[in-house]
Amino acid sequence: MRVAVVGAGVSGLAATKCCLDEGLEPTCFEQSQDIGGLWRYTEHIEAGRPSLYASVISNTSKEMSAFSDFPFPEHFPAFLPNALLLDYLRRYTEHFGLREHIRFGSTVVSIRKRPDFATTGQWEVVTEAGGKQTSYVFDAVMVCSGSFSEPSLPLQCFPGIERFRGQRFHSRQYKHPDVFQGKRVLVVGMGNTGVDIAVEASRVAAKVTISTTRGAWLLSRVSEHGYPWDMILNTRLMTLIKTKLPAPLSWRLINYKVNQWFNHENYGLQPENSWLVREPLVNDELPSYILTGRITIRPGVKEFKDSSVLFHNCPEEEPIDVVVFSTGYTISFPFLEESIIRVENKHMSLYKYVFPPRLQKPTLAVLGVIKPFGAIMPVAEMQARWVSRVFKGRAAKACVSCLPRLSWRRK
Q1: pLDDT of residue 389
Q2: Which residue ranges does the chain devote to CATH 3.50.50.60?
Q3: Closest by alpha carbon to 30, among 112, 118, 101, 131?
Q4: What region, left, alpha or beta, does residue 294 occupy, with left being phi > 0 and alpha being psi -120 to 50 degrees?
Q5: What is the per-residue pLDDT across 355-393, written as a single tens digit (0 to 9) for each?
Q6: Is 298 helix (H, G, I), strand (E, B) or coil?
């Protein structure tokens, strides 16, 4: 059984390896010239692939992030700079002989059902390499292209932005803090990337402000007794609390837990609706930077002026020189027909976050487009193991015609 794998990042490598484990024949198409996906840093921004800033360090520990059959080297630190995580992926690739199954410099142009799809479940995959297009027939497809390539920049939600005369850009374009030297910086959005950029900017900028409409739970990489945070919060007990107790009680307990490090309300970070928080922020320096005045937390933007901004519930304008929009990404599969996977307002319907529910044959799956409470690599591996077994016929996929539609949203 021939399987097309789109992308050679974390999910694509796991998918290729799991296909080999099941005796399938994977062909992985990677549009760039190397593996790594999100974790391969480049100084320039490449169209169609994620862009990483130089200082990125993993937010999950190596003990909780490793693939099940390939632990991190012992001498690696608990939290990994992007270069070391890429090194780990290279070791994984070489150890399991994955490189020979990857076609670099091959962009997937289209994936279409074959005319006899209802009986064969086969797909026609068209790729482009060196200006030449090639068509293939595959028995199944694993889409592992990720969700961090197409920035979401809803400028229409920010009145007056067209009048703003300063510099503005999406966080995807950020590489180094030098661009903020001596300037007044506003970061719109409070995801992990936005907070990282704000912290770095505060070391060289004249002033840094973070605008957030919903707040966030903030964790330190170092948790109780010096253990990584995910070793403390990703346990069977915490899972039972989150899934088995009545929702009001479980969220009250989690609120208590995350507020033990510091009181979020005192810092202007307490989420108004705690049960809507899907992922925590992980940053060791933000609380002290707020206390020392290097970073200021403000509510949502009400209006931009020529060289200033007005926030909701704040009567005074705040002068700014640079705006960084850390407003997330849009999920996009330009090579797929819209009828296969529908994406609306960052929502995507997939059975178990993997299978499109309306296909006649379960021969196409999406991997890695999910935000777990913790590391993505073990989750991507579990998805790949399940999908490869479904393709092989060794695992049943429930009839999806009677299943509720499951949605996933990237904040």
Answers
A1: 96
A2: 2-149+329-409, 155-220+261-325
A3: 101
A4: alpha
A5: 998 899 999 999 998 888 889 999 999 999 999 999 999
A6: strand
Domain 2-149+329-409: CATH class, spelled out: alpha beta
SS3 (DSSP) at 387: helix
pTM for the model:
0.90
Contacts made by residues 88-93, CB under 8 angstroms, sequence distance 24+: 89/10, 89/13, 89/35, 89/36, 89/39, 90/35, 90/36, 92/13, 92/17, 92/67, 93/13, 93/35
* Best CA proximity match to 354, nearest among 63, 140, 36: 140
Establish how many alpha carbons lie within 13 A of residue 153's alpha carbon, considering only the half-sphere containing its beta carbon.
13
Q: Which residue has the tokens 């690739």?
A: 93
Q: How many C-beta neighbours within 10 Å does residue 177 have? A: 19
Q: Rank 181-190, 253-262, 337-346 by mean pLDDT and report only the highest.
A: 181-190
- The first and second tokens of residue 104, run together, are 């670099």
Class of the CATH domain delimited by 155-220+261-325: alpha beta
